[in-house]
Amino acid sequence: MAKQYGFYVEADKCVECHACAVACKAVNNVELGVHWRRVHTVWGGQFPKVTCDSISFSCMHCGSPACAAVCPTGAVKKRAEDGIVTVDQTKCIGCHACAIACPFGVPQYGKNGAMQKCNLCLDRLTADQEPACAWTCPAGAIHAGTLEDLTKLAQQKTAKQLVGSTQPSVFISK
Amino acid sequence: MKTLNEVLMTRRTFLKATGAVGAAIALSGGMQKDLLTQAENVANAAPEEKLIPTFCAMCGPSSGCGNMAKVVGGKFVGIESFPECPTNNGFNCPKAHAAPQWVYSPERLKYPMKRVGEKGEGKFQRITWDEAITLIANKLKEQKAKYGPESLGILSPARRSYSDYLYRFLMTHGSPNYGHSGICALQRMFAMYYTVGAFPSADYANADLIIIWGAQPVYSGSAKGGVGRIIAAKQRGAKFIVIKPSLESDGAVTDATWVPVRPGTDAALALAMLNVVINEKLYDAAFVEQWCYGFDQLKAHVQQYTPEWAEKITGVTTTQIKEVARLYATTPKATIDSSNGPEHARAASDTFRAMGALMAITGHLDKRGTNVWGAGSKMPAPRSVHMMDKYTQEWVDKLVGYEFPPAFQPFVEGTSSSLYRLFDSVLTGQKYPIKAIIAPGSQAIASTRGTKRILEALKKLEFFVILDVARTSDMAYADVVIPISTMYETDHPFETSGAWIMARNKVVEPLGETKSDYEFWLDLGTKMGYGADWWNGDIKKHMDWRMEPLGMTYEELRTKYPKGRTYETNPPTYEQYATRFAVKSTRIDKGPYLPQGKVALYNTLFEKAGLTPMPVWRELPEGPTATPELLDKYPLLLSDYHTSRTYNAAWLRHVPYLREIEPYPFLHIHPDTAKARRISDGDWVIVEGIHGNMKVKAMYYPGIRPDTVMVLHGWWQGCQELGMPDYPIADGGANTNNMYTTDPNKMFDPVVTGMTSQTLVQVKKA
Predict the structure, then answer these.
(1) CB neighbours (10 Å) of residue B69?
(2) pLDDT of B549 strictly over 50
(3) Which of B82, B253, B504, B620 could be stapled to B66 by a disulfide with Cβ–Cβ 3.0 to 4.6 Å?
């Protein structure tokens, strides 16, 4: 199997501080109103026995990305060398087919109407730097790397890879 | 726990739901251009890219987190990790990442200004820095001759690295009137110093049971170790209990037992815990015998505070009060992390006195895994600019209004009046009227109780100067506005964290004609004729003077240790009772905090000063058990949060990357409470109170007491880049300070002037 990069998110460490979400925007100059990474909260139980879980999500860089499959212009592509799903904004016609196809609601559209999303901080990875979300996390809850490395890390806990028809490249622990 | 599928489904629903918010956010052309400029810079100017080690200071008041500031083409564009900085070990929170938007914000103050319109009108004329300093100096000299030097008050919002400069200026000018907020840190410190000799910190690293009591360790400097400590303790298997009116992420992530206490009633809970521990004989008899004074009196005193009694007041069940008390007392390595929450109450000091007593009698003081004093390091302390040695009784007697009772002044930071009382003197003339207020980073109308009264005082005040980085809520009333450089635009002062010290590096040239807070005080001190005490305005000489104990100049610190110097840490020492309980106080008489050399379960110093010798319960100004007759009309208890993940008190709402995370003043309301009022999640609602009203946005929050609603304090500012307007500062806005009583007999803790943040309200759809 060719190399596949992805994320391992330790949901049991997430404190919902949003550092990852803002770091992502700052490093990638993401325009206002557009979010490549978000932190989600899920409440459970009944007062006073209440639970609250939070988790940080971005593009899952799926093994079989639905967004790329439906893209009529080939703007959304999966890179052969590292499995990262990228967008060529000059080719995107803003049809939103990818947004409809993506099971995780990832594709975002800014002022220019073209799709945009997490590219795993490709420039940084190329320069051997960690993605912004991963290095900044005060809880050390976000890891980026090859599935091989992430599998090893995830095995230290009972973390599992997300299961889905698109084969998301994301592990989650809880 | 929801299944993963449910989480992901929720996520889709959430994205759809928030699409509307995203669409409503209008991009201003300016911001867009700014982003493009940054992108172009990144694309074209690789050789000009620099990474400069420095530190953030967007929150406070403790030391700033290290970061590598990225400069491209002379412009500060972002940050990278600075792992060598021990404050935050390479992690950063949302604020530091949004820093370039803060530095280059359209709300930045770039030039000194003087008022040309009426007070409150907001008409200003640009002047030079020198003109501003001269204008202030002339006015202060005139007032000093006419009213006496004590007519000047200087406000301190919180402890900052510049706080001692305010003290120094007041000393060189001749006024004792340092105005402290009365709602932050000193309130709990005072009570703890006079109970156990000092404030002992929670030993997260070694505890088996950690009680987070009214603290927000995730929000208060998340990158500084608060989060790391919590996660590490959880991984070790430590058990957590959180005591607060709503469940927050510290409790959520640690699967903590939540004790949903009503806001402002922590003292009743602590007193009932003492009752359980004493009556069930769960205390450490040997420690009590050797190191506690007044146990028998305390035992008799707490008989009235039964768990059944406390249940009615606190809303915590008798069973849970007993469980928590027993678990804490019987777990040898148990610790309490408490902070601002319980300080905002009429029984603030009593809460911490009772908490100190609990720590002491259960043997949870200065042992591994309990509450400990720490051992410090071998780093020599840089010279302080404070002039503590000059205090006299006459100086204390001259204070316009007290934060701590006169017999206990000065406390650790110096003499102080409550900030609110400085303003009140402008209106009442008691004990004499303050005529000038200098307000560095304070915004009293948005961060201190009694908004309407502070507004009145600002209209009447003869001379008002504000110092800040960006526009403030009270700026329209200022006679002179002093624009302050952000920490990215200045090369001083140094920053310390435990055993580490580093020189601040200038990242970009100051915008407009801004200078640092430190330069302001040196310049003003010198212009006033106090130059001998102010290094004649020479900041370089001044920084070298401060560095002398470390045996190097400030430039040597910078060049020899570009990423800071780390000194050796002392090995941990425990059970240092004999020395700790004998510590001399900062009072004029320099007597010890604990006259018996023991924990003051019964406080003879308080008794002598006419204060209650043992902690007591004091009711809320308005509340379910305080004023049950009001419940028909106002059935819900309102309080506010001290801090948040994105903002700092009344600041930073104008920074768009932060505002996107927390776009509105969200009222946390239990879904059942909301539904009973036909309020949907996200509805704008009116909070009707006894003293004012607010318009805020309802957020369904399953982790809050159904009889309580809470909102973050400090809302007033809009965000230009997101097209969001300012909110009114008084009624109709979102300023919680407008909601509470200003009855002087009800608004304060009588010992430490802690200001209440509880009242009764009704909530209706707007």
Answers:
(1) 27
(2) yes
(3) B82
B621 contact partners, CB below 8 Å, separation of at least 6: B346, B740, B741, B743, B746, B747, B756, B758, B759
How confident is the prediction for chain B on average, in pLDDT?
A: 92
User: How close B275 gets to chain A, by Cα (Å)?
Assistant: 24
Query: For residue B480, which of B467, B489, B495 has the smallest C-alpha distance?
Result: B467
Integer Cα distance of A98 and A88 in angstroms: 13
Closest CA to B234 of B253, B221, B216, B248: B253
Q: B46: which residues sit within 8 A by CB, 6+ positions away?
A: none
- Cβ-Cβ contacts under 8 Å for A53 (sequence gap 6 or more): A11, A14, A41, A42, A44, A174, B1, B2, B7, B252
Q: Does B23 touch chain A (CB under 8 A)?
A: yes
Burial A1-17 (b: 16+ CB within 10 A, else e): eeebbbbbbbbbbbbbb
pLDDT at B584: 97
Largest CA distance in chain B: 77
Chain A to chain B Cβ contacts (< 8 Å)? 169
Is residue B706 within 8 Å of B246, Cβ to Cβ?
A: no
Lowest mean pLDDT among A53-67, B598-612, B640-654: B640-654
Single-letter residue type at B398 = K
Number of other residues whose CB lies within 10 A of the CB of residue B432: 14
Fold of A5-173: Alpha-Beta Plaits (3.30.70)
Average pLDDT over residues B308-328: 98
CB-CB neighbours of B387 under 10 Å: 15
pLDDT digits (tens, 9 = 90+) for B371-391: 999 888 999 999 999 999 999
Q: Which residue of A has its CA nearest to B222?
A: A138
**Secondary-structure percent of chain A, ordered helix, strand, coil, rounded to 5:** 25, 25, 50
Q: Which residues of A touch B51 (CB under 8 A)?
A: none
- ipTM, 2 decimals? 0.97
User: Which pLDDT value is given to residue B62?
Assistant: 67
Burial class (CB in 10 A: 0-12, 13-18, 19+), B84: middle
Contact indicator for B739, B707 with CB cutoff of 8 Å: no
The burial class, CB within 10 Å (0-12 / 13-18 / 19+), for B700 is buried
| CA dist B648 → A47, B176, B338 (Å) | 30, 28, 19
**Spatial distance between the Cα atoms of A97 and A115, rounded to a whole number of angstroms:** 10
Distance CA B246, CA B262 (A): 9
Tens digits of pLDDT across chain A (174 residues): 579 999 999 999 999 999 999 999 999 999 999 999 999 999 999 999 999 999 999 999 999 999 999 999 999 999 999 999 999 999 999 999 999 999 999 999 999 999 999 999 999 998 999 999 999 999 999 999 999 999 999 999 888 999 999 999 999 997
- Running DSSP on this structure, what letter comes out for residue B242? E
Q: Cβ B249–A104 below 8 Å, yes or no? A: no
Least Cα distance to B369 among B242, B218, B209 occurs for B209
Q: How far apart are CA B644 and CA B340, in angstroms?
A: 13
| pTM (two decimals) | 0.94
User: Does the structure show a pLDDT above 50 at B495?
Assistant: yes
Please indicate whether, in this complex, the C-beta atoms of A26 and B79 are within 8 angstroms of each other: yes
Q: Is the dihedral of CA B126, B129, B134, B136 positive or negative?
A: positive
CA–CA separation, B37 vs A111, rounded Å?
A: 16
**CA B380, CA A67: separation in Å to the nearest integer?**
60
- Window 673-732 of B: residues touching A by CB (8 A cutoff) are 702-703, 705-706, 721-722
- The answer to whether the beta carbons of residues B377 and B498 sit under 8 Å apart is yes
Distance CA B649, CA B314 (A): 27
Phi first, then psi, for residue A14 (nearest 5°) are -70, 130
